[in-house]
Design brief:
alpha/beta, Spore Coat Polysaccharide Biosynthesis Protein SpsA, Chain A, two-stranded antiparallel sheet, about 20% strand, globular
């Protein structure tokens, strides 16, 4: 769906030590935005990682109508929490998070990731901060087989991205895209010649809906997700 350059994971533990400065040496502000819907069991571990990442200036959790303790957990760990009621879907949550900050670069991360480290965050951020590209897309590699395979087949559906905020703000009807938000972003950048770089996220994966919600509810919500993606692609 979009042309990309690929980049291997950083092998240098100090990579990105000056990641919050662009190529001209100017300070660049970065906000991590984490959309979350009923993720009380996993959002805490994601927050602990991003809060240790030296390139990130602000951490925002968008609690998208959760009925569990997602907001409470995020608050207890010092994140800025935006509560949306009723649920607006992932696209609405991402747009709300973007509107809540003046940061130059937005790092979007799913709230149910497994295996995320500070190095992964820096690998996503550095190409955008340096000005080498306008958006990065994180691709799972070497993690759990089902999620790694899914991202190899459909990399444009990845929820792990760093993007310049002015690009995100220009994407039309993002708040209405719900689970189709990644498709909407990918189509926009492809249509407008925006530079994109894929970044391998070694040993990262996420929990499946069926694991979090149970077999039947998870399968039902997975079908809903697929329908919302198809809707953005133009199928009715």
């Amino acid at each position: 769906m979009f042309k990309t350059e690929s980049r291997a994971p950083s092998q240098n533990p100090n990579a990105g030590a000056k990641a919050s400065e662009n190529a001209a040496g100017a300070k660049v502000r970065v906000a991590a935005v984490i959309p979350a819907y009923n993720e009380e069991h996993t959002v805490g571990s994601i927050l602990q990682v991003v809060q240790r990442c030296e390139a990130i200036d602000e951490v925002i959790v968008v609690n998208d109508g959760s009925s569990d303790r997602t907001a409470e957990v995020a608050n207890s760990l010092g994140a800025r929490v935006i509560n949306l009621y009723p649920n607006r879907g992932k696209g609405g949550a991402m747009k709300a998070g973007a509107k809540a900050t003046t940061a130059d670069i937005l790092l979007f991360l799913d709230a149910d990731l497994v295996g995320l480290t500070e190095a992964h965050c820096l690998d996503l951020l550095e190409p955008v901060i340096s000005g080498r590209t306008d958006m990065t897309v994180g691709i799972f590699a070497g993690g759990r087989a089902p999620t790694t395979l899914a991202q190899k087949l459909t990399p444009f559906l990845s929820g792990q991205r760093a993007i310049r905020r002015e690009i995100l703000e220009n994407i039309p009807q993002l708040e209405d895209s719900r689970y189709g938000v990644e498709v909407a972003i990918s189509r926009y950048v492809a249509a407008n010649g925006i530079r994109v770089e894929k970044v391998l996220l070694k040993d990262v994966s996420h929990l499946m809906k069926e694991e979090k919600q149970g077999l039947i509810p998870g399968a039902r919500n997975r079908l809903k997700m697929y329908w919302e993606i198809l809707r953005v692609l133009g199928f009715r």
